[in-house]
């Protein structure tokens, strides 16, 4: 993960020392990813010429929303004096004070419930989970008292709350810190689930989430925090907002559709590069929103390319890819020229050993091979 | 558990022993050191026998008072029918009486309707506990919040939700307070600031703490003139749940304007509180977190009201939370599906003699606050209200098909974009309830 070292500031380097060591042995993969990012950056170069890390994007989005609406406040472990476990809330405590940037005791169930209660009664909380794995201790409140409340109260009590934090595998953090919750939260009526990839996604979707009157689960990715993406001038504007429920076509193509979200979008774009050299033009869709899922964009794309590869980090069974396959079969069956390929994480708890971890999560080669398989160009 | 200032006597119906009435304890509830609380040696013996209900039948009536730490100052009560100073005026007395009778009559009617098949699912009745609801909620303003559990019909009624709306909700009709979408366990009312109605025990406590957090935030960050207080009602079983302790900690830490009201009716479904709890004295858990813990006789509405007054005033002044343990009893089973076989009939008979409505009636009549005729008139009026509620609910329509998809999101675009590229909620079939979602 060489590029992460370049972009981190000094204090973060100390904190993330262990991640660096872990990542250092991922030589090959990291440098190719780095190349991929640079390639993407060049291609989507915009007029502002400015680059922003996802971390800064999230930080600026929080900052702007908190300054625009005094009812917005941030609550979570280490968000205040520690500047955020992943430094997402850096500088916010100083700017807004301890009442609006609340450090909590280690009580997920308690403070999530407090956030929900505050949302019931008129405020707009942003609850940060150090990782979404910890949200399992609070999942009762996310589902039962947040997601279902507008329905149970017949519209009287809406819950304008955002639950955010890193989701999915990091580097070498073991089984209990590496689960991807997109499919779990994506199954809950009453929730909106967003999965940003780039800085522009992060900014636009977080702002949309905070302004949204419904509970939003905002799944970030720890490994993306340090990555830089170009941002347009439009994205830097403080009223910039992306619509919830619309996917983005990151790269246009004609031969095969690849859907992905979060970190996997980067991998899919890399795979598309490799496929392009072999004459396969891949269309990469960045889902941006798991619930509601933009089936309209996906289906339109499949009807154009006639082939689909879904990519996700979570396990295949009952996963996001499974849902996409089902909707595409339901709506665009006769447009398919080949069976749908589902690329997902291995059906195991995340192992610790670096080499095992690498094969437990989809890699660029897996996506390339799958695309070639359904283009009948494999071996 | 007496204050050092005035000698207080605790009468805990669990632990009957007349010899305890003269004891005085030096240490205050708030201190963390072990307090030589009353009857500690005899308690262990009583704990064993309590399950058999042997000791409960003989009852001391005269010395029932509320106990508190020295942080909560309260008047000394000589007996439940103190002649020296009346605790309530006539108007207040009639309001309390009417509220309790409404709660009782309503719940009795619910039972009838359930057995006739008009009500279904899980229904948890509040008979016997009316003093707690009335004693606390009648002191609140409309803007104050109440958060309850699944045993929430009477909390809704006390807070001001019309009986018609509650009954319709129970029947699952569209005129219910939640349009039939919530049900018995999920009573919500934005107008009356009833924030639910939660099926999971312990779930309401953090939500209540959050509402209190909002009150404080409004006052300190938004600089609004806000002194709203939140009451969280929950049971004895909940006091063993992790969320309870998490919230006691945070409420005391951040000095939130909340009162934690424990309705200790001694039983979860069939699990006695004593079998489930290492230290059954719940009020003691308050001081462990730095807030006063108060124990009060929950079958006496006047005592509850007095303690409630002080706790709510404390919260309004910004001094932080209070934990109030109300010892009460439910006359019926846990829910209408519960055959209620595990509780000792002697225990039930004992508490039946301490019916809070009868006690208040007696107080009112003995102190000449109102005549028998006035009370009878109130009872008749309540009967009519309840019958009208049933009629209203009966005649109300069931929800339309299209209501299925409504209110899932405040912003219905949350249903996403349909196959035609437009938002699903814009499809006319969606509002008719015939769209495939």
TrEMBL record, chain A:
GO terms for cellular component: mitochondrial matrix. The pyruvate dehydrogenase complex catalyzes the overall conversion of pyruvate to acetyl-CoA and CO2. The pyruvate dehydrogenase complex catalyzes the overall conversion of pyruvate to acetyl-CoA and CO(2). It contains multiple copies of three enzymatic components: pyruvate dehydrogenase (E1), dihydrolipoamide acetyltransferase (E2) and lipoamide dehydrogenase (E3). Keywords: Metal-binding, Mitochondrion, Oxidoreductase, Potassium, Pyruvate, Thiamine pyrophosphate, Transit peptide. It holds the Pfam family Transketolase_C. Its EC number is 1.2.4.1. InterPro entries: PDHB_mito-type, THDP-binding, Transketo_C/PFOR_II, Transketolase-like_Pyr-bd, Transketolase_C. This is Pyruvate dehydrogenase E1 component subunit beta. It comes from the Eukaryota. The gene is LOC105165996. Tetramer of 2 alpha and 2 beta subunits. GO terms for molecular function: metal ion binding; pyruvate dehydrogenase (acetyl-transferring) activity. Its cofactor is thiamine diphosphate. GO terms for biological process: pyruvate decarboxylation to acetyl-CoA. It is an enzyme of class 1 (oxidoreductase). CDD domains: TPP_PYR_E1-PDHc-beta_like. It catalyses: N(6)-[(R)-lipoyl]-L-lysyl-[protein] + pyruvate + H(+) = N(6)-[(R)-S(8)-acetyldihydrolipoyl]-L-lysyl-[protein] + CO2. Gene3D superfamilies: 3.40.50.920, 3.40.50.970. Residues 52-227 form the Transketolase-like pyrimidine-binding domain. It is found in: Mitochondrion matrix.
UniProtKB/TrEMBL annotation, chain B:
It holds the Pfam family E1_dh. Residues 99-399 form the Dehydrogenase E1 component domain. PANTHER family: PYRUVATE DEHYDROGENASE E1 COMPONENT SUBUNIT ALPHA, PYRUVATE DEHYDROGENASE E1 COMPONENT, ALPHA SUBUNIT BACTERIAL AND ORGANELLAR. This is Pyruvate dehydrogenase E1 component subunit alpha. Its cofactor is thiamine diphosphate. Tetramer of 2 alpha and 2 beta subunits. Residues 368-395 form a coiled coil. It comes from Sesamum indicum. The keyword Nuclease does not apply. NCBIfam families: PDH_E1_alph_y. One of its GO terms (biological process) is pyruvate decarboxylation to acetyl-CoA. Its EC number is 1.2.4.1. It catalyses: N(6)-[(R)-lipoyl]-L-lysyl-[protein] + pyruvate + H(+) = N(6)-[(R)-S(8)-acetyldihydrolipoyl]-L-lysyl-[protein] + CO2. The keyword Coiled coil applies. Keywords: Coiled coil, Oxidoreductase, Pyruvate, Thiamine pyrophosphate. One of its GO terms (molecular function) is pyruvate dehydrogenase (acetyl-transferring) activity. It is an enzyme of class 1 (oxidoreductase). It comes from the Eukaryota. The pyruvate dehydrogenase complex catalyzes the overall conversion of pyruvate to acetyl-CoA and CO(2). It contains multiple copies of three enzymatic components: pyruvate dehydrogenase (E1), dihydrolipoamide acetyltransferase (E2) and lipoamide dehydrogenase (E3).
């Amino acid at each position: 993960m060489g590029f992460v070292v370049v972009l981190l500031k000094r204090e973060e380097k100390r904190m993330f020392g262990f991640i660096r060591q872990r990542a250092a042995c991922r030589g090959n993969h990291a440098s190719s990813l780095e190349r991929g990012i640079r390639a993407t950056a060049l291609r989507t170069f915009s007029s502002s010429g400015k680059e922003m890390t996802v971390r800064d994007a999230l930080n600026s989005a929080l900052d702007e929303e908190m300054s625009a609406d005094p009812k917005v406040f941030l609550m979570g472990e280490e968000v205040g004096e520690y500047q955020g476990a992943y430094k997402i809330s850096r500088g916010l405590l100083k700017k807004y004070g301890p009442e609006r940037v609340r450090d909590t005791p280690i009580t997920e169930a308690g403070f999530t419930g407090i956030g929900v209660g505050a949302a019931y009664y008129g405020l707009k909380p942003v609850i940060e989970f150090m990782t979404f794995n910890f949200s399992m201790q609070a999942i009762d409140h996310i589902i039962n008292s947040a997601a279902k409340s507008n329905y149970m109260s017949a519209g009287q009590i809406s819950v304008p709350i955002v639950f955010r934090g890193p989701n999915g595998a990091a580097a070498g953090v073991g089984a209990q810190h590496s689960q991807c919750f997109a499919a779990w939260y994506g199954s809950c009526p009453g929730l909106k689930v967003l999965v940003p990839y780039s800085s522009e996604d992060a900014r636009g979707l977080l702002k949309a989430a905070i302004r949204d009157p419904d509970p939003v689960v905002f799944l970030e990715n720890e490994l993306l925090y340090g990555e830089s993406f170009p941002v347009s001038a439009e994205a830097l504007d403080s009223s910039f907002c992306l619509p919830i429920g619309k996917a983005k076509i990151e790269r246009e193509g004609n031969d095969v559709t690849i859907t992905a979200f979060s970190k996997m979008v980067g991998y899919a774009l890399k795979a598309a590069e490799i496929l392009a050299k072999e004459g396969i033009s891949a269309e990469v869709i960045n889902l941006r929103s798991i619930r509601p899922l933009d089936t309209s964009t996906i289906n339109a794309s499949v009807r154009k390319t006639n082939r689909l590869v879904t990519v996700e980090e979570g396990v295949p069974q009952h996963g996001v890819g499974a849902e996409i396959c089902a909707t595409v079969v339901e709506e665009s069956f006769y447009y398919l020229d080949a069976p749908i390929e589902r690329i997902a994480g291995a059906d195991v708890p995340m192992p610790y050993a670096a080499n095992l971890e690498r094969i437990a999560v989809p890699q660029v080669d897996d996506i390339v091979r799958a695309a070639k398989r359904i283009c009948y160009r494999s071996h | 558990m007496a204050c050092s200032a005035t000698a207080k006597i605790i009468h805990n119906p669990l632990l009957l022993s007349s010899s305890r009435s003269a004891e005085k304890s030096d240490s205050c509830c708030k201190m963390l050191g072990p307090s030589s609380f009353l009857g500690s040696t005899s308690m262990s013996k009583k704990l064993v026998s309590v399950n058999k209900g042997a000791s409960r039948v003989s009852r001391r009536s005269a010395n029932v008072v509320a106990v508190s730490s020295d942080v909560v100052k309260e008047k000394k009560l000589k007996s439940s029918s103190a002649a020296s100073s009346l605790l309530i005026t006539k108007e207040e007395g009639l309001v309390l009486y009417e509220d309790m009778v409404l709660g009782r009559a309503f719940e009795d009617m619910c039972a009838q309707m359930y057995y006739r098949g008009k009500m279904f699912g899980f229904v948890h009745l509040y008979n016997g506990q009316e003093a707690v609801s009335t004693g606390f909620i009648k002191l609140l303003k409309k803007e104050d919040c109440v958060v309850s559990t699944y045993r929430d019909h009477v909390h809704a009624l006390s807070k001001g939700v019309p009986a018609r709306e509650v009954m319709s909700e129970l029947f699952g009709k569209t005129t219910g307070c939640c349009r039939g979408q919530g049900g018995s366990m999920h009573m919500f009312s934005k107008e009356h600031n009833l924030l639910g109605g939660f099926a999971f025990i312990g779930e309401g406590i953090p939500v209540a703490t959050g509402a209190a957090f909002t009150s404080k935030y409004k006052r300190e960050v938004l600089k609004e003139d806000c002194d709203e207080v939140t009451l969280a009602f929950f049971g004895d079983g909940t006091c063993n749940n992790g969320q309870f302790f998490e919230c006691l900690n945070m409420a005391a830490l951040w000095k939130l304007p909340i009162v934690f009201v424990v309705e200790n009716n001694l039983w979860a479904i069939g699990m006695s509180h004593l079998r489930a709890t290492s230290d059954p004295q719940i009020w003691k858990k308050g001081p462990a977190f730095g807030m006063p813990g108060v124990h009060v006789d929950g079958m006496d509405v006047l005592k509850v009201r007095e303690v409630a007054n002080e706790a709510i005033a404390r919260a309004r002044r910004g001094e932080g939370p209070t934990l109030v343990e109300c010892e009460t009893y439910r006359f019926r089973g846990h829910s209408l599906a519960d055959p209620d076989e595990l509780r000792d009939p002697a225990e039930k008979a004992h508490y039946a003699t301490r019916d809070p409505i009868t006690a208040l009636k007696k107080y009112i009549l003995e102190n000449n606050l109102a005549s028998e005729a006035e009370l009878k008139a109130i009872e008749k009026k309540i009967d009519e209200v309840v019958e009208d509620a049933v009629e209203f609910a009966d005649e109300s329509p069931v929800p339309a098909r299209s209501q299925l998809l409504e209110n899932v999101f405040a912003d219905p675009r949350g249903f996403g974009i349909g196959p035609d590229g437009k938002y699903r909620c814009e499809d006319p079939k969606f509002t008719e309830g015939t769209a495939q979602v």
